[in-house]
């Protein structure tokens, strides 16, 4: 039987590539450079399926230039803001993602961001590393305590719930905003707020876990930062588009928001160069799901979706 021809746009985990090579006629971009619009358009004529990352952009303009061969885009990501879903669906192309498998890794990273932002990780690391640490005082690098504090979560999907579970280990009082309240057996005693504004008022720590959509672009803007309690800490392990970065710097400079932990930025890769002037922004380069275990699970989930599709079934994670 002729194997379906698949393009893997980036260097996925070894186990994923091994399985893909066993089961498919596969072309792998070992150079690991982001796929360009021209490459994606050309691939639509050469491949039956693509496993892209969030670095490949399937815009309406790109999809409009597609040939007819491509049948499925099996994303190696849970976020699909790099795909114009409607444009792909209109061409009859299946689109899948990789939910569940990255929730714990991403929630772990959100915890790291929260703790690092709250406890001066940037300035603390620098002063030791640079050899400039020459004194100590009880007033030195005093941070904000996480244990027992009120945590606000925007977006109580899989990652939001995984983060809430870890936060309960720190005895945090969990509040959340979501389109709808969770059933009691999933809420574990956390408090539902029916508006973002209501949530912000109690969010000593605020963590974002919602997708980037037209509605959530600049979700956290100057007005909403002002609603946070004085000294709040904000964490973003979801998407950079959720935060108005100019407004974030303004509230940090004014001392209203105390610190931020960010794994994602409006501009990626690269981030916001102006953030480097803020020691109270603890930053990582979009590595929320970057553990070996999770990378394997993401790759396998994308392949499970391809396998189902080419076996004539509807892939489990069809969007
Ligand atoms: C991934 C992510 O690293 O899954 C997502 O939506 O943002 C990240 O966890 C990346 O998208 C992999 O393609």
Which descriptor suits the 3D outline?
globular
In total, the number of strands is 12
CATH topology title of the largest domain: Rossmann fold
Computed structural class:
alpha/beta
Rg, nearest Å:
21 Å
Approximately how much helix is present in the residues? 25-40%
List the secondary-structure elements in sequence, H or E.
EHEHEHEHEHHEHEHEHEHEHEEH
Spans of 5+ residues with little confidence (pLDDT < 50)? none
**Oligomerization state:** single chain
Number of domains: 2
State the major sheet: 7 strands, parallel
- CATH superfamily membership of the largest domain, which one? NAD(P)-binding Rossmann-like Domain
User: Could you say which small molecules are bound to this protein?
Assistant: 2-keto-D-gluconic acid
Strand content range:
15-25%
Quick gist of this model?
By secondary structure, the chain is of the alpha/beta class. 35% of the residues lie in helices and 15% in strands. It folds into 2 domains: 5-101 and 292-310, Rossmann fold, CATH 3.40.50; 103-283, 3-Layer(aba) Sandwich (Rossmann fold).
């Amino acid at each position: 039987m002729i194997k379906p021809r698949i393009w893997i746009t980036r260097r996925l985990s070894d186990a994923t590539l091994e399985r893909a090579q066993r089961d498919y006629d596969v072309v792998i971009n070992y150079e690991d450079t982001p796929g360009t619009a021209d490459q994606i358009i050309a691939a639509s004529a050469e491949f039956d399926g693509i496993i892209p990352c969030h670095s490949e952009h399937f815009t309406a303009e790109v999809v409009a230039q597609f040939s007819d061969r491509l049948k499925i885009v099996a994303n190696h990501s849970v976020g699909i803001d790099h795909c114009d879903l409607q444009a792909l669906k209109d061409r009859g192309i299946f689109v899948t993602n990789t939910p569940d498998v990255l929730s714990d890794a991403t929630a772990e990273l959100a915890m790291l961001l929260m703790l690092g932002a709250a406890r001066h990780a940037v300035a603390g690391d620098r002063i030791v590393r640079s050899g400039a640490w020459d004194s100590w005082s009880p007033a030195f690098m005093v941070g904000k305590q996480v244990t027992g504090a009120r945590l606000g979560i925007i977006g109580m999907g899989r990652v939001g719930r995984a983060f809430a579970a870890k936060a309960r280990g720190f005895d945090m009082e969990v509040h959340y905003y979501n389109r709808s309240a969770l059933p009691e057996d999933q809420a574990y005693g956390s408090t539902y707020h029916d508006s973002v504004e209501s949530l912000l008022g109690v969010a000593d720590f605020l963590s974002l876990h919602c997708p980037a959509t037209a509605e959530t672009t600049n979700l956290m803007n100057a007005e909403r930062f002002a609603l946070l309690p004085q000294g709040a800490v904000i964490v973003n392990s979801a998407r950079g588009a959720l935060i108005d970065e100019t407004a974030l710097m303004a509230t940090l400079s004014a001392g209203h928001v105390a610190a931020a932990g960010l794994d994602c930025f409006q501009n990626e890769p690269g981030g916001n160069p102006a953030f480097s002037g803020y020691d109270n922004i603890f930053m990582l380069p979009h590595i929320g799901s970057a553990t070996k275990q999770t990378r394997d699970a993401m790759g396998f989930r994308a392949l499970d979706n391809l396998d189902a599709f080419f076996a004539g079934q509807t892939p489990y994670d069809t969007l």
